[in-house]
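In this section we walk through a basic example: taking a raw amino acid sequence and producing a predicted 3D structure, encoded as discrete structure tokens. The instruction is simple. Fold the sequence below.
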Amino acid sequence: MSISSGVLLNIRTIIRQLIPAQPCLLCGAMSRDSLWCEACNLSLPYLNTPHCPVCALPTPAGAVCGHCLSHPPLFNRTTAVFGYSFPLDKLIQNMKYGGQLALPGAFAKKLVQRIDSNDLPDFVIAMPLHPAKLRERGFNQSQLIAAAIARELKIALPSNACQRLRDTPPQSALPWNEREKNVRNAFSCDMDLTGKRIALVDDVMTTGASLNALAKAVTKRGAIQVSAWTIARTLKQRT
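The resulting token sequence is shown next.
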């Protein structure tokens, strides 16, 4: 190790020791690592196995899956950090329903690490909530994640570019084969996106129906390339 590397390591160690310890959101142990401790971090279901570059479902050697070949979605690729399973699902629920509003920033940092900084979009657009749902929850977790990503990567985040037109039932409450119908024509986009590349941000992708419906809205307004950026991907195979 060089002298300069040793100095940097010592500085990082000192800074880490100065950070107040806080209870890990998963196990309660005191931690200076992040919102969750290093042991729990190692237990999180990081999406590191080969997967379809379009929808992020597992595939041999990372090939495009059969469903995306036969029924390609309107987004071109998906970047996801985790598979949606325990204990990551607990963190997601804490963010959406437990008022843990530090989590969007922590998740955004993880997602930024997986985004190709040499191929960034022109705009980031968050999955919109219907106004009634926004009033009920008080915040849009996808908007908070998107805002943190936009700041980190210095990408424009237009406000109110897209809207959710219908207060649809939660996708999680519906069978998989009904989710596409549930969000069909549920979004609109008022912004001229002619010739622009767009990244759509959501917390969890399950079937991809919501993101596909939102991708339809932005392509109608002229977007030429649409990516999906999501914290977690449900890895259950389609039936």
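Looking at the output, two observations stand out. The two ends are 53 Å apart (CA to CA). Residues 3-18 form the longest helix (16 residues). In the next section we compare this with other chains.
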